[in-house]
Structures are given as C-alpha cells and as structure tokens.
Specification:
The complex is a heterotrimer.
Chain A (H helix, E strand, L loop, with lengths): L4 E12 L2 E12 L3 E6 L5 H8 L7 E6 L2 E2 L5 H8 L2 E4 L11 H12 L4 H14 L15 H12 L6 E5 L7 H18 L2 E6 L2 H7 L2 E6 L2 E6 L1 H5 L4 H8 L15 H4 L5
Parallel strand pairs in A: 3-8, 3-9, 6-7, 7-8
Antiparallel strand pairs in A: 1-2, 1-4, 4-5, 9-10
Helix pairs in contact in A: 3-4, 3-5, 5-6, 6-7
Chain B lengths: L2 H26 L2 H4 L4 E8 L10 E4 L2 E12 L4 E9 L9 E6 L6 E6 L11 E3 L1 E3 L4 H14 L4
Parallel strand pairs in B: 1-7, 2-6, 5-8
Antiparallel strand pairs in B: 1-4, 2-3, 3-4, 5-6
Chain C lengths: L1 H32 L2 H5 L1 H11 L4 H25 L6 H39 L2 H7 L4 H40 L3 H11 L2 H29 L4 H31 L3
The chains are: A alpha/beta, B alpha/beta, C mainly alpha.
C-alpha cells in the first residue's frame, strides 16, 4: 500500500452507554483504492462509518480525512468536508417527495450556482452512468429495490466526491442487481479516481471487487488483507466467514445459561 | 406536480385567504362604515353614564352619526367627560341635547342627540351643555319607593 | 412501595416533559435561525403552502359552513326567547371571528396538516433521508423544517379568515335565507358590534400564534420521532393531542389578555 492515505483511523475507541462499541481501531484507506469493512451484523461497522462521516465523536483516538481530524472541525468545516464525501445509505435513502431527476440534482442545486441547463446535462450523465436515464421522471416509490439503489448511487456521486462510503450496498438485492451494483461501485471508483469504503457482510460479492479487506468482530479488527490473502487464510475466523460455516469462533448460540439447566434437567 | 400549477393553486389560496380577511374587515367589521368618513369631536359632561362604553354608537333620530371615543372622570366637576366623534356630514346646532339612552329594555347604551333651534353649529372640540344622564334602575326604584312612602296613607 | 414508585413515576414524567419543552424550544430557535435560506428560495415555501394550506382548504370550508349554520340555528333559538333575533348577525360574527374561527381552523389544521407533517418527517428520518441530507452537507432544519414552518405560519391566519367568512355566510344562509331574520339588521348590527382592531385583528393574531405553535409541535414531533413504525405513529398521535391541548389552553390565555374588560 504505497499510495498516500486519504483517510486514516488511529486507535479509535467509542463507548456508547458504557458499552464499548469500537476498541482500538487502526485503519488506512489509500487514495484510489476500494476497501471493504466486513463483519457480522452489529459489530460496529456502521458506527465506524458514522465516525468517518463526522456524525459521531470518538471517545478516544481520531479519524483523519484529507489531513484534518474530523471531530475537531466545527459545523462549517464539517459541512465543507462532507461536500467531498458521498455516502450511499443502506436502503438508498432517496428523498421520497422528489423525482429521480430532482434527487440526483439535489446537491447540485443546494451547493452550486450552476444553471438549470448545466445541471440537466450533469444529471443526465450521472443517470446514464447507472443506466437509468429513462427513469428520470419516476418517483422513488415506483422504483424496484435495485433501481433505487442505482439512483442513490448516481446521487451519491453527483458532485464527484473524493471519498465514497457505502453502507451495506448489497442488502436486500436480487443476484442480478447485486452484480450490477458491485460492478458499478468498482467502475465509478476508478472512473472518478475516488476512494471507496464499503461496509458489508456480503463476502462473496465484495471479495470480487475490492482491493483490501478489514474483518471486524465485537468492535475490534480481527483480520485484514487483500482478497487473495483472505481466501487462502488459515485464520479460523476468516475461514468461517469466507466459507459461511455455521459454527466456528463465531458461535451459533448466543451466550446463555447452560442448556441442560434451561431445560430443567438435572445433570 | 408542475411548478406552475403549484404556484397557481398556492396563489389562489393566498388570494382567497386575503379576500376573506378583507371581507371580514369591510363587510363584517366596522372598518367599512367607521373610518372612511371624516369626523369632528365634541364632548359633554354627564353626572352618570350608566353602562356607556367607548365605541358606543351616537344616534340622532335613530341614525348612526358617530361613536364615543373616550370616557374619563373630570375631577373638577366630578362628572363623566365623554368625548364623541361625529361624522362631518352631520352638523348639529349649539343647543343640541345629548341623552344616554338604552336600546330595548336590556340592550346596549348609546347617546342620542336631539337638535335644538340655534343657528350656529357645534365646532370641533366644543362642549354640548345640555345632557341627560343614564337612567339607573336602582335610582328609579328608590325614587318610586320614596314617592310611595311620601304619599299620605289613607 | 407502590406510593413511592407512583410519585417517582410522576416526578419522572414532569422532568421529562420539561426537558422535552426545552428541546422543542431549542428546535424552534434553530428553525428561526436557519430560516434565511427558505426565503431566498421561496419556491420551497410555496411547495409546502400547497401541501399544508391548499390541501386543508376543503375541510376548512366545509367545516366552517356547517359551524356557521349551526351557530345560526342555535343562536336564533336562543335569541328568539329575548325577542332579539336581529342580534343574530352579531352573535354569529363575534363567535366566529373571536373564537371559533381561529380555534376550529387551528384544530382542523393540526389534525390535517400537522399530523401529515409529523408523519412525513418521521418517515424521512426512519428511511435515513435526514441522515443522508446531513451527509450531503445540507442542514435538514434549513431545508426541511424551516419551509414547512413558514408555510404553516402563513397558512393558519388565511385558513382562519376563510373559516370565519364561510361560517358567517353559513349563519346568513340559515338565519336570513331560511328562517327569515331581517337581512338589513343582520348585517348592520353585525357591523356596528364587530370592531376591526378589537375583534378581527385579535382573531388574526390568535390564529397566527396557533399557527406557530401547531407547526412547531408537528415538526418537532416528526424530527424527534424514534425511527420505527411505532415511533412515527406514536409521534403523529402526540402531534394531534398535544397541539389540540395547546390550542385550547393558549386560546384561554390569549382571550383573557385580549378581550378582558373590552
């Protein structure tokens, strides 16, 4: 990883309600790369993403983006930083009271003084990139899950961000949409020269497209490496995860009282 | 929805609401009848005004000619000083009589102006000298009782 | 102890309520602070004027007409006993302009537009649209809340005036057209008794205050709703209940201030 880092996370700790959610996280996201953060549901991935977006303040440590510590920024600085970021939310989070066109044009209208003509051309380019130019007049409620995700993707990259974050981009998609979205994420990252962070638990799909992977469990990093390294890994945890085995270091049973005891059996 | 259709509807809504306000002000309220004509002020002293209130009407021969502007107590005479605004169109002789009357048995009180025969008319700020106070029910009753008691018994 | 825990629960409730009022006040302040943008881009307010004002028109007009007709009927029956049917216009007009217009319009507005605002913003929050906006460096209070607030504040007096005007027409229909009260005395007594500043302006001020209160409650409840289905439905119910109570209580306070001794 020779590229300079766009985002650096050092010794990040976050405690919510006295419960440690993140502990001692160290991550580096080099410019131009596509990095995945994987782990089971509830392992703190989304919390981590919210730290990178500056929506949460770490208990200890810091997130540095483009040379600046996120939680030291005031509101204006934070908003200025966020203009360089794009984030795709889990279910797209399209504005339901606006058409597809207006959704993609939203940030251009909010943040720039571009003429409507120019905005039109830009929106068309973005929608063309995700293959949905024909759907510009539809409302979000009329779109299928996969289409909504693609529109949201077009909206996310509307202002050509340096950093694109994806929160579970593959959740709830059919296999075809899944491949389409995965392919789009890779191509958009390379075409825009951006850096991308994907938070997901969809191992197979993301291993196909990313450059580097962090595995998280219980608020700590358990493993990291390139997709090839991980596929070949002897690490029990990674093996269980990559191959989707039912039992392993991550137990099938949620910790509870002794089974025999719960069944009222005497041993 | 198209931006222009939206604007049209909202425009209609605002116009309708504003029209309702204007109708309320002109047709329902007194803005249409009260403030339009110019007025002149006269005042009068009453020994008792009863239930007369500011904005009470001033009528002559039953026609509304003005309104009571203010009521205060004059501490030199210990009488109520009632200021009235009267429509400029109606001029009254100097010896006009001002009475406090009641519309109906329990209705509102108003001032009735009964013109005299003087050739000069009242000017702005002048005083109406002849007044008759409000009839107060308690006074009437006590007068009645007193006169009954004074009658020689048979 | 049951008593102890009840007292504790009551205390907790009170503290919680006061705390929420504080948060709502802060929310209101922020809304005012970030309102500049909505006036620079007035079409944002126009869009919300459509959904809160225009969409409430039908219910306001129909309700106003019927309330006015009932007032005409009841007023006539009562006034007839004292032989003062000619005061019907006064009664209908004063009742509507001072009280029923602002209050009924505000109650209807709270349940029609207020609940819709809460549900809409609550759903936007539940589907992460608010977070998405934050991440796009757009302030959701400036972009979502402020235009709705001003639309509500503008709509409310207009709707109340419409309610009163239509209601007086309803009273006229029943009193004059149907029952046959003298038309001349109906209008002239009304004009003699209803004062522009004292009655109509005060009624308008009332409805303006109600507009502020109802929209702030509706927007705050939406913004504060837990991002779940139950959260949003609970917030919608709270909007209607809280703003109805607030309208009635404030109406008493405002009436006491405005009309006492007049």
């Amino acid at each position: 990883m020779s590229q300079p880092a766009l985002v650096e996370i050092r010794d990040l700790n976050f405690t919510y309600d006295k419960r440690p959610v993140l502990q001692g996280i160290n991550m580096t996201f080099p410019k131009g790369k596509l990095v995945a953060i994987m782990g089971l549901s509830g392992c703190g991935k989304t919390t981590l993403l919210r730290h990178i977006g500056g929506a949460l303040k770490p208990t200890k440590g810091y997130v540095k983006m483009d040379g600046q510590v996120m939680h030291d920024l005031d509101r204006q600085g934070l908003y200025a930083m966020r203009r360089k970021m794009g984030m795709l939310f889990q279910f797209g989070a399209l504005f339901t009271d606006m058409s597809v066109y207006d959704n993609v044009a939203f940030q251009m209208r909010e943040h720039t003084d571009l003429s409507e003509d120019l905005i039109h051309s830009l929106v068309m380019m973005k929608l063309h990139a995700v293959g949905l130019r024909g759907a510009q007049d539809m409302m979000p409620s009329e779109l299928s899950g996969g289409m909504a995700r693609r529109v949201a993707l077009a909206r996310t990259v509307a202002l050509d961000p340096m950093l694109i974050m994806y929160d579970e981009p593959f959740a709830g998609l059919d296999p075809i949409s899944l491949t389409v979205i995965g392919d789009l994420i890779r191509r958009l990252n390379d075409a825009l020269g951006a850096t991308s962070i994907i938070v997901t638990h969809d191992i197979q799909e993301s291993l196909k497209i990313v450059d580097y992977v962090y595995f998280m469990a219980g608020g700590v990093i358990r493993a990291e490496g390139t997709p090839d390294e991980l596929r070949a890994s002897k690490n029990d945890f990674v093996r269980q995860f990559v191959h989707g085995e039912m039992d392993g270091p991550v137990p099938f049973h949620y910790p509870g009282a002794d089974y025999h005891q719960d069944l009222n059996l005497r041993t | 929805m198209e931006r222009t259709t939206l604007d049209l509807w909202v425009g209609m809504f605002v116009v309708a609401g504003a029209a309702a306000l204007v109708i309320l002000a002109m047709k329902v309220g007194n803005l249409g009848t009260y403030n339009v004509s110019e007025t002149y002020q006269v005042h009068a002293y009453f020994s008792n005004i009863g239930g007369l209130k500011p904005k009470a009407s001033i009528r002559s021969a039953g026609v509304l000619v003005g309104r009571v502007t203010s009521i205060s107590l004059n501490t030199e005479r210990y009488e109520a000083d009632v200021v009235m605004s009267v429509d400029k169109r109606y001029q009254f002789p100097k010896d006009t009589f001002a009475n406090i009357l009641t519309s109906g048995l329990l209705g509102e009180q108003y001032i009735g102006l009964v013109p005299g025969g003087d050739t000069e008319t009242l000017k702005n700020g002048e005083l109406i000298k002849q007044t008759q106070s409000a009839m107060v029910l308690e006074d009437l009753i006590s007068k009645f009782m007193y006169s009954k008691a004074a009658e020689p018994s048979k | 102890m049951a008593v102890q825990s009840t007292i504790r629960a009551i205390g907790h409730q009170i503290v919680n309520t006061v705390w929420r009022i504080g948060v709502a006040a802060r929310f209101f302040f922020l809304t005012l602070l970030y309102s500049g943008n909505s006036f620079r881009r007035f079409h944002l307010i126009i869009k919300e004027l459509f959904s809160s004002g225009v969409m409430s028109l039908i219910i306001i007009i129909v309700a106003g007409l019927f309330v006015g007709m009932v007032l005409g009927l009841q007023g006539y029956e009562t006034l007839k006993r004292y032989g003062s049917e000619s005061a019907l216009g006064v009664m209908v007009a004063l009742g509507l302009v001072r009280e029923l217009g602002p209050v009924m319009a505000a109650l209807l507005f709270a349940s029609r537009a207020g609940s819709a605002m809460t549900a809409e913003i609550g759903l936007m929050k539940a589907t992460e649209q608010i977070s998405a906006m934050e991440m796009m460096a757009v302030n959701p209070i400036a972009r979502i809340v402020a235009p709705r607030f001003w639309a509500g504040v503008i709509s409310m007096p207009l709707l109340a005036a419409l309610f009163s005007a239509v209601g007086i027409f309803g009273g006229y229909l029943v009193g004059v057209v149907q029952i046959g009260v003298d038309e001349g005395s109906f209008w002239s007594q009304m004009q003699a008794a209803v004062d522009f500043r004292e009655d109509i302006m005060n009624g308008a001020i009332k409805s303006l205050v109600f507009g502020v209160v109802v929209t702030v409650i509706a927007l705050f409840e939406g913004f504060d709703a837990p991002p779940t289905a139950e959260g949003v439905s609970g917030a919608t119910t709270r909007t209607v209940v809280t703003s109805s109570l607030a309208i009635l209580m404030l109406d008493f306070v405002l009436t006491a201030i405005m009309f006492r001794g007049a």
